[in-house]
Amino acid sequence: MRKELVVITGGPGTGKTTIIDGLIEQGYSCFPEISRQITLEAKKQGIEQLFLEKPLLFSELLLEGRKKQFESANQDAADFVFLDRGIPDILAYMHYIGDSYPSFFDQACKDHTYTKVFVLPPWQEIYISDEARYENYEQAKLIFEHLKETYQTFGYNLIEVPKGTVEERILFILNSL
Question: 0.85 cut: is pTM over it?
Fold first, then answer.
């Protein structure tokens, strides 16, 4: 059986991390979102919101982290490995803010491909802002559109996860595999 590297993506506040946590509880191998770690490290160094203040630096750090996650996921013994966001997410966010980036970002997306990509649509009823999630709901909807467009540019057929309970969403993902 071929290893399945499965990305769960979507705009902010759509339930990605909750689904990843649920998959972990069920014993699946999962890799968490790393952007909050990078943001917290920057805060320790006196940069309040790295993505807003130095988006290219933030994106470069994120790219390195996601490439490491990809390699670790490929070496994982599990047949199915779930990742909270993939490398194309970085480009989608850069598109969202209208920033340019070096060509090695595109190359990283070509060099690190995932088996399946599940996308979670905006869901206002569960959307919550916090200190690391600065976008409002309208911005979250725009980010979702950039995510879809970016993944499709790299040839992915996105599988949209319907709204529902965490258990229903996890079951949908597992049944789709």
Answer: yes
What is the residue type of 153?
A: T
Beta bridge partners of 84: 8
Nearest CA to 85 out of 63, 55, 111, 107 is that of 63
| Measured distance CA(54)–CA(36) in Å, rounded | 15
35-44 contacts: CB < 8 A, separation 24 or more? 35/62, 35/85, 35/132, 36/132, 37/65, 38/62, 38/65, 39/132, 40/132
Question: How many helical (H) and strand (E) elements, i.e. helices and strands, does the chain have?
Answer: 8, 5
pLDDT at 55: 81
Cβ neighbours of residue 111 closer than 8 Å, sequence gap 6 or more:
none
